[in-house]
Protein: Aminotransferase
Amino acid sequence: MPELNPNLQSLGNQNLAKIAPSAIRAFDEEISAIPGIIKLTLGEPDFSVPEHVKQAAIRGIENNDSHYGPSKGKLALRQAISSYLEDTRSVHYDPETEVIVTDGATEAITAALIGLLNPGDKVLVPTPVFSLYFTNIEMAGGEVVMIDTSADGFLLTPERLEAEIAKEGPKVKAIVLNYPCNPTGRTYTKAELEALAKVLKKHGILAITDEIYSELTYDQEHYSLATLIPDQVLLISGLSKSHAMTGYRLGYLAGPAGLLRQVAKAHSFMVTCVDNIAQDAAIEALTNGRDDSKLFREAYRRRRDLMVAGLTKLGFKMAVPQGAFYIFAKIPDQFGTDDFAFAKDVAKRAKVGLIPGSVFGAGSEGYVRLSYAASDENIKQVLQNLQQYVADLS
Structure:
């Protein structure tokens, strides 16, 4: 193993050095070595990709679709994305200039923030929320302004939004909204989004909306902020959750061409082009597989209800998820508020893997996130293990 040349010891991006690695991944790796553990840690659907979507990928391989494609993605896929968004959001995005295919929604978020932020720009982020937004804003030189929504049912209110904009001043350039939300599963009604849109319109602030879980809502239809203020929204989504295509790494961005020019530049420097075979599969999913997610959604609804009922009996408190596939549960009072200590003890004693709530930002302390993108058998076993754990320590 080569030893690093001493003259190179000082190399390293100082801004990046201040940013901690993903706490979710780190905790998952830490507990993965525990024998017999059942992990509800990652947002990984346990379903297989629909057969007709897999066959489209196979045809792409057989047709030798193995050469460089357009940086923004295949035109046929951008057209399919545009058609899908017009049908579901009532907004027309020009496939030529207003849609970019990305290497998953993660790269879409990264490209958007790097392409649009300047050093010192402030970005509002309602929390609890997926911690990737914090790190990517900081990597782009921006400043994260967390808005703790725990006192309002984990939803941002227009009054709170107005107050934060007034408090932070003209440096506020954007807000990141993830709905349905990871980790809480909460989402917004049309009326709630209309109220937020009114404030954003008044102040001319960009909304970056991560709608990756939009096909997995249970009690209401998904409604998009882009429908209300399309000139101020950069919409991010993908096929990882709706079609269980996490490993295909297929996401996309849609928004006004004036925004996407800079974002496309950042994207092209990070990713020459997205995998052609994944794009072949995505074209099939968006043209002939729009109903595929309905089967997944009903399974998730059943698992949500099973977990909510089981955890409630054990003393956990939670806002019932309206979408996605996570439960964000408050630890029973007798176990205190140290969510890291609790999650580690549960992993060790109960053989159950949870994610400590604190990694999701302000308002997350004393909670744990459980993913119910797992088999019914595993969920039932987890509830049995937790029941025994609570009984043993009560």
About this structure: The chain has two domains: 7-48+292-393, 51-288.
